[in-house]
Specification:
Structural class: alpha+beta
Distance between the termini: 76 Å
CATH superfamily of the largest domain: PPM-type phosphatase domain
Shape: elongated
CATH class of the largest domain: Alpha Beta
Number of domains: 3
Strand order of the largest sheet: 3-2-1-6-5-4
Number of helices: 15
CATH architecture of the largest domain: 4-Layer Sandwich
CATH topology of the largest domain: Phosphatase 2c, domain 1
Oligomer: single chain
Length: about 575
């Protein structure tokens, strides 16, 4: 072939590739087009493609033999194995026309796909300066593969690499959007339903839209019997309840419950902990369900395909397991309230649950003195505060107050907390978190109910607090020079307007600054003359006691407020967070 004809051929193939690749962004469809183009370009019977995936510990290879049919075969090999692995490792193209004398050929792979290999040409895919995978043409239809064939494939690699990268990005973006939408829908379900079966069914069927599995379920420890019972399962129809229920430590579910560690098993036949339930199960993934720092059960999925699950799947199912924990938590609360015969007992139970939602200890950060407290009025209320670990040097700070008192307020507070925690896991934007929590509360609350709250994220490395105030009492920022600022920016109270929007604002916390968050139970206190304690008295106490620790400041505020109140005053819960930057 002359040089001019060779260039013309490559140009035609490039034009054909552009036309084909511009026709779709769907990943699997694009891979088929890539394999077809490779076989056409070098006149081969078959082709395969491998894309580097840093979340996998093996190579996932897609293969089609157009000489037989157009069925795509997907199989897995160890990293670096075979000619594909060699090319991926050394980033060099290779032609092998005498496969029987080349030690790099993976004969086991070809036996598994039930194909005879005679010759091959394998080329690394280079896109944007990086090796993203390998394409390989198998069995030249006439003669042997040549250097001209290699030139043709190398000429196509950049276009193929870009197309695969774009399709993978599109697939990833679609998956992330679907995941966020599913989590949002589950959050709405959590806010509107106390039926455990209904919500767990929603969670498992939603998970199936993003993770392929043939059987799965939510399992929980029965503390009385010390065994593991299924709460909700699908795909185990041929198994009896006695088969599914396990002892702690038995099977992969029992192992995860006992150790508290998630597990991905690419091949269950090689795992000593696997408990045989389904004939066709090849791989399994199990994550623990944690509630109040204790492992209470596990979320399990099984697949008929080997190596079906990766780290992305594990991360997503961990989030779904958190949703299951919230459902179990709410169901337990509901069951306790329904079964209680006396209102005093109901109030006691609700108060204990409310206390369990509060932090077990203060937030410990270098250079900061941070404490929070909730002093109950004796009634069950709707006050809430929390410290939420996000990533290193990033900690969420939340305080909220639900309208009303008693059991209804505590249930609304539980809904608010569940919605907030779920959205924090799914979003980084504070204003977006507040907007979605508002939508969830609006759909689940009765008219007239609402929540005031502040949510902020403290960057303790750069000393910046980014916050959003959702109609809550204005936190007081007392600067070193005794000047005062109020944290006003945010938006409306939560749960009243369906499409409310919110803004966020960053503030710098200087050394010796004090930031004080509180609920209305601190300032809406009246003396015998009908005078309100108010914000000015609060600021005076902060200035007078600024040299003290955060705990001492809060103790001084509480003692002053209670001494100010008239004997007939009905106290609300007093909830406070005090943040001091010491250095």
């Amino acid at each position: 072939m002359t040089e001019g004809r060779h260039h013309t051929r490559i140009e035609k193939l490039l034009l054909e590739a552009a036309r084909m690749f511009n026709s779709t962004l769907e990943y699997e469809e694009l891979i088929r087009l890539v394999l077809k183009l490779v076989t056409t370009a070098v006149n081969s019977e078959a082709a395969l493609v491998f894309r580097v995936d840093h979340d996998r510990t093996d190579m996932k290879i897609r293969y089609i033999n157009y000489h037989k049919d157009d069925n795509m075969i997907v199989f897995h090999r160890e990293l670096g194995q075979g000619v594909v692995g060699w090319v991926a490792t050394y980033k060099k193209p290779v032609i092998i026309n005498d496969v029987h004398n080349d030690p790099r050929v993976d004969w086991e792979m070809w036996e598994n796909v039930n194909d005879e290999i005679k010759s091959l040409i394998s080329v690394p895919l280079i896109g944007k300066g990086q090796m993203i995978g390998v394409i390989e043409a198998i069995n030249k239809k006439e003669g042997e593969f040549t250097e001209e064939d290699m030139d043709v494939l190398i000429g196509l690699t950049n276009q193929i690499a870009v197309a695969i990268d774009n399709a993978n990005l599109y697939r990833k973006t679609k998956r992330e959007a679907l995941e966020k939408n599913l989590l949002y829908e589950i959050g709405k379900k959590l806010s509107s339903s106390l039926s455990l079966d209904e919500v767990l069914k929603e969670i498992i069927h939603s998970l199936k839209q993003v993770i392929d599995f043939t059987a799965g379920g939510v399992f929980i420890i029965n503390q009385d019997k010390q065994d593991i019972e299924s709460l909700y399962t699908i795909g185990y129809e041929s198994c009896t309840e006695a088969d599914i229920n396990l002892k702690v430590g038995q099977g992969l579910v029992g192992y995860v419950v006992k150790t508290g560690q998630p597990i991905i098993v690419p091949d269950v036949s090689l795992n000593e902990h696997y408990y045989h339930l389904k004939e066709n199960t090849k791989s399994e993934m199990v994550v623990p369900i944690e509630l109040d720092g204790h492992i209470i059960g596990a979320f399990n999925v099984e697949s008929d395909k080997p190596k079906a699950y990766g780290n992305n799947d594990l991360s997503l199912m961990t989030t779904f397991a958190s949703q299951a924990a919230i459902s179990i938590e709410r169901a337990r609360l509901h069951e306790q309230l329904v079964n209680s015969q006396k209102i005093t007992q109901q109030l006691k139970i609700a108060r204990e649950i409310q206390k369990s939602f509060l932090p077990k200890k203060d937030l410990s950060l270098p250079g900061y003195d941070i404490t929070g407290t909730n002093i109950p009025s004796g009634q069950v209320g709707g006050d809430y505060y929390d410290f939420i670990n996000i990533v290193e040097h990033q900690n969420g700070i939340a305080i909220g107050d639900v309208s009303g008192k008693g059991i209804p307020a505590s249930l609304l507070m539980a809904s608010f907390r569940a919605s907030l925690i779920a959205e924090i896991r799914n979003n980084y934007s504070i204003r977006t978190i507040c907007k979605k929590v508002n939508s969830l509360l609006y759909e689940s609350m009765q008219p007239g109910n609402f929540v005031t709250a502040i949510y902020g994220v403290l960057d303790s490395k750069n000393h910046i607090l980014t916050f959003c105030n959702c109609g809550h009492n204005l936190p007081v920022l007392l600067r070193k020079d005794d000047s005062v600022e109020f944290l006003k920016e945010g938006g409306l109270v939560l749960g009243v307007v369906p499409d409310a929007t919110y803004e966020e604002r960053p503030i710098y916390i200087s050394q010796d600054d004090i930031l004080f968050f509180y609920t209305d139970g601190v300032v809406e206190v009246f003396n015998e003359k009908g005078e309100e304690f108010g914000t000015e008295r609060l600021i005076t106490i902060l200035k007078k006691n600024r040299h003290k620790t955060s705990q001492e400041i809060q103790k001084e505020i509480y003692q002053t407020v209670t001494a100010f109140a008239s004997p007939e005053h009905n106290f609300d819960d007093l909830t406070m967070i005090t943040l001091k930057r010491n250095k």
